[in-house]
TrEMBL record:
Keywords: Membrane, Transmembrane, Transmembrane helix
O-antigen ligase-related domain span: 237-375
InterPro entries: O-antigen_ligase-rel_domated, WaaL-like
Transmembrane segments: 75-93, 99-118, 130-152, 210-232, 239-263, 269-288, 362-386, 398-428
Subcellular location: Membrane
A cellular component annotation (GO) from this entry: membrane
PANTHER family, sorted: LIPOPOLYSACCHARIDE BIOSYNTHESIS PROTEIN PA4999-RELATED, TEICHURONIC ACID BIOSYNTHESIS PROTEIN TUAE
Major subcellular site: membrane
Lipid bilayer topology: Multi-pass membrane protein
Originating organism: Gloeobacter kilaueensis (strain ATCC BAA-2537 / CCAP 1431/1 / ULC 316 / JS1)
Superkingdom field: Bacteria
Protein's name in the database: O-antigen ligase-related domain-containing protein
Length: 438
């Protein structure tokens, strides 16, 4: 008994010693990652509000001011895009509400302010710290999924309101289009099945599509680290990705891993760049559901079985894209501000101008002006990330490549913004040579 207590005390002492050795930034990032289930319970769409208030309060408490340097060009473009989206959506929308102002303001404006703060203070966290935090988070996801799938049962997993949904007085019964951040959905059986034929897992993100892209990034993160245990982390993340049933994330992951492998085994920069461009174009085409399913059908020879995989989703997407393209010419300069009516009566999420960031959020909702502003930000940001890539893990650049391709069929929401901010902070160095200044 005494020996067991000594071992327990030793482990606790080791943990406390390791925790004390972390920088303030590393402690903050680790807590934010590990406590994702808590942020999910609160409501992810509004999580930047307490985060921004926390950063501001911490800065004022520690330094008496909020330390922000002169904004770089990509920050100016990002802030301009954020202001444009908020104004355009509320001017052209049916009515101005707190949600119509706060939601885009937090996602785009909050993301821009956090990126500005990170750049201004040179905030970096070590890769190994993020990997350990992700390992804990993935363990949490596996345990919760197993509990919901095998203990409660897929059909009896309840859908309850998040704290945000409760405070906003949302209905107790979940309906499609009521906002994934307002409800706690663990398994989504209403929108098809995953690759294993079960309900799609949301992984504390709120929606299977967004959960899939987040888990694909964890796989890239595991590839960037060193150590045999990372194989377990990557395999677990891939398994969870399959549970989300997200085709675009799976295709995107395969493509960027192929690019990573090609660059690592080839020293011919020109040839590697050429193949990288081919891969980007191929992914942009293959990520379109009808083309993906046609190839799968031809390859497997079982047209009927594979063609039925989320067929309803494919047909609805086709109709959404068709109607969106038809209406692009009605307001090309400033766009329509907000998504249009649903193309499938009784199913609110199937709105014109949805299910694609490039076609819907940019061309349809933001028009030429908004598209130019975002492209300016994305180009400048990617250029800065490439110039500073030498002390970063390769997942930082690969995630940008994957997100760019996935934007053809997936919206750009707060979980993607959060992943970008996280990867910007990660340092490949084993030890921090300079004290972080968060």
């Amino acid at each position: 008994m005494e020996q067991s207590l000594d071992i327990s005390r030793g482990r606790v002492g080791t943990f406390l010693s390791t925790w004390r050795s972390l920088s303030f930034a590393e402690k903050t990032v680790s807590v934010l990652i590990v406590l994702l289930p808590v942020w999910w319970f609160i409501g992810l769409d509004y999580i930047y509000l307490p985060l921004l208030l926390g950063v501001a309060g911490c800065e004022l408490w520690r330094y008496g001011r909020i330390r922000l340097g002169p904004p770089r060009p990509e920050i100016l473009a990002f802030l301009a895009f954020a202001a444009y989206v908020v104004i355009n959506a509320n001017v052209q929308g049916d009515k101005i509400t707190g949600h119509s102002i706060l939601s885009p303001l937090l996602q785009w404006g909050g993301g821009a302010l956090l990126l500005w703060y990170i750049q201004s203070n040179g905030i970096r966290v070590r890769l190994k710290v993020v990997l350990w935090a992700m390992a804990i988070l993935i363990s949490e996801m596996l345990l919760v999924w197993a509990f919901g799938q095998f203990v409660l049962g897929e059909e009896t997993v309840p859908i309850v309101r998040s704290l945000t949904g409760y405070l906003l007085d949302k209905g107790e019964r979940y309906v499609e289009g009521a906002g994934s951040s307002n409800y706690l959905r663990l398994l989504d059986s209403a929108n098809g099945s995953n690759f294993l034929g079960r309900g799609r897992f949301t992984a504390f993100i709120g929606h299977p599509e967004f959960a899939g892209q987040a888990l694909a990034c964890v796989c890239l993160l595991a590839l960037s680290g060193g150590g045999s245990w990372l194989l377990l982390l990557g395999s677990s993340s891939l398994f969870l990705l399959l549970l989300t049933g997200t085709r675009s994330a799976l295709v995107g992951l395969v493509v960027v891993v192929a690019i990573r492998y090609f660059f690592s085994v080839s020293k011919l920069g020109g040839l590697a760049t050429l193949w990288g461009l081919v891969a980007i174009i191929s992914f942009s085409v293959l990520s379109i559901p009808p083309i993906t399913e046609t190839i799968v059908d031809s390859f497997s020879g079982t047209v009927q079985s594979t063609g039925n995989f989320r067929r309803r989703s494919t047909e609805v997407r086709q109709l959404i894209y068709q109607r969106t393209i038809e209406r692009l010419g009605e307001s090309p300069l400033f766009g329509h501000g907000v998504p249009g009516r649903t193309v499938l009566p009784g199913y609110a999420p199937a709105q014109i101008g949805s299910h694609s960031f490039i076609l819907g959020s940019l061309f349809y909702c933001s028009g030429i002006v908004g598209t130019i502003l975002f492209v300016a930000f994305w180009t400048l940001f990617t250029g800065w990330l490439w110039q500073t890539r030498f002390d970063r893990p390769d997942c930082a650049v690969l995630s940008i490549l994957m997100f760019t391709g996935m934007s053809t069929v997936v919206a750009f929401e707060i979980s993607r913004m959060s992943i970008i901010l996280l990867f910007v902070m990660i340092s490949a160095a084993r030890d921090m040579s300079t004290q972080d200044r968060i």
